[in-house]
Structure formats: C-alpha cells, structure tokens
Amino acid sequence: MTGPSLVLARDAYDDIVSQGYDGGDEEICGVLAGEYGDDESVVRDVRRVPNAAETPQIRYAMAPEAQLAAIEGIEDDGLDVVGFYHTHPTGPAHPSDTDVERATWPGYSYAICAFDGYPYLGSWRWTGEAFERETVRLVDDVES
C-alpha cells in the first residue's frame, strides 16, 4: 500500500453517515478520535462539533469552543486527534476549493462523506499545501 491510510471502525463510519442524514441539507462536522500515525491512523470514535458557518448548506466551520472541548475530551479519554470530518450533502465526494483554503492541520486526515445517491466516505491528508488521498479501510472492530 502506498501513501497514508485511514482505518475506520464501522461504528464510527455509521455515526458519521447517521449524523449526515440527520443534518439534512446542512453540512455536519466533527473530530476523528483514535490513534494517530504518520502512515496509518485508526479512528475509534467521532465527536460531532456544531457547524457555525454562516451558510451551513455549502460550508462548515467548527464552533471554536466546542471544537476545543471535543479535542480535550478526546485527550482525556486517552485517544489522539486523528483528523476531522464533514459532509457534503449535495457536493462532491472530494475536498472543495474552500476545504483546501481552510485546511490547517498538516499531516492530519480530513474525511468527507458525500450523499449523492448513497453515502460515500473518502479521506485525504493535508500536506500543508495540498490534500493527498488516503486509502480508507472499514473494519468491524478496531483492536485495542
């Protein structure tokens, strides 16, 4: 396997998809929690953060205090921040130009779940200059 990869627990994936459906036509967003690795990260859990964007139908912006609380909760649980996730209710199944402009955590995963017909989740690592596609692998149970 070349390039970075993201191992995603089925429960975490199901949670992102469920949140996306619950969000309707608005993008939902949150933090990926698990074990961070340079080559492979493992997502055990997701922490939803309210979308504070002025136009949540086409943008996401994590509410800063809620994002900080989510990150602190992840660390308190002995997990790492693996990256972030958001949905594209009607948009592309890849990072938008706005996603590229607003990415700020080099080396971390940015998962996007698109709902054009059926849910599709892809993930990309932010290099500091561009997104690099990750291999996403769903697993029923993430070993401890």
Question: Any descriptors?
Answer:
single chain; 144 residues; alpha/beta; Cytidine Deaminase, domain 2; 8 strands; 22% helix; globular; metalloprotease; protease; Metalloprotease_DSAMP; MPN; metallopeptidase activity
What do you see in this structure?
- Residues 6-130 form the MPN domain.
- Keywords: Hydrolase, Metal-binding, Metalloprotease, Protease, Zinc.
- One of its GO terms (biological process) is proteolysis.
- Pfam families: Prok-JAB.
- With 144 residues, the protein is of the alpha/beta class.
- It is 22% helix and 36% strand.
- The protein contains three helices and eight strands.
- Strand 5 and strand 6 (120-126) form a beta hairpin.
- The model has no long low-confidence stretch (mean pLDDT 93).
